[in-house]
Specification:
Blueprint (H helix, E strand, L loop, with lengths): L9 E5 L5 E6 L10 E9 L5 E6 L10 E2 L2 E4 L6 H13 L5 E10 L3 E9 L14 E7 L1 H11 L2 H19 L1
Parallel strand pairs: 3-8
Antiparallel strand pairs: 1-2, 3-4, 3-6, 4-5, 4-9, 7-8
Helix pairs in contact: 2-3
Length: 174
């Protein structure tokens, strides 16, 4: 199958404590006890709607599924924040977002996933999706976004959005 994923990109390998202990290309299997860094973000507009993307049908993982606003693997030498800023710029053409200072992280079988939430004053028409990676984009109410992601069967993405929404609600009550 032809894919839009770059299989020759270089990643850092991490140990269970988050220390960089090696490097590898995407095409290589992650060795046991090592991890690579994955970053994801939810982007909220000024009215509280969340931007979701539908993944291209040529993606290796979850082709055609609705997903978070942007995300991908950190490249060698990138911090999680630099990686998500790059992914947002590449996939959506957005560069001026306000960091909501929400961040979450967890470890999967061979990856560490860092999640962020951002807010931006943007119009959907100003978002320029990367055609090779993104089939379409849409703004959803938070409730509809959680439901849409849950229906996709990628349960962690739905859970992470709920965590970001809980954080936002807490911030509004303060």
């Amino acid at each position: 199958m032809k894919t839009t994923d770059t299989v020759d990109e270089w990643w850092d390998q991490y140990d269970e404590h988050g220390n960089i202990v090696g490097k590898q290309q995407r095409r290589d299997r992650v060795p046991a006890g090592r991890y690579h860094l994955v970053v994801n973000a939810f982007i909220f507009d000024q009215d509280g709607a969340v931007l979701l993307q539908q993944r291209s049908l040529s993606k290796l993982n979850h082709p055609g599924a609705w997903d978070c606003s942007a995300g991908g693997s950190a490249l060698r030498g990138e911090s999680a924040l630099k990686a998500i800023q790059r992914e947002i710029a590449e996939e959506l053409g957005l560069t001026s977002l306000v960091d909501l200072k929400w961040h979450d992280s967890f470890r999967g079988l061979d990856w560490v996933e860092d999640w962020f939430a951002f807010r931006g004053a943007f119009k959907l028409s100003a978002v320029k999706p990367q055609i090779a990676e993104v089939a379409q984009i849409a703004l959803f109410s938070p409730e509809r976004a959680v439901d849409r992601l849950y229906q996709q069967g990628i349960l962690n993405t739905s859970k992470q959005l709920q965590k970001a929404l809980n954080w936002l609600a807490f911030q509004k009550r303060r």
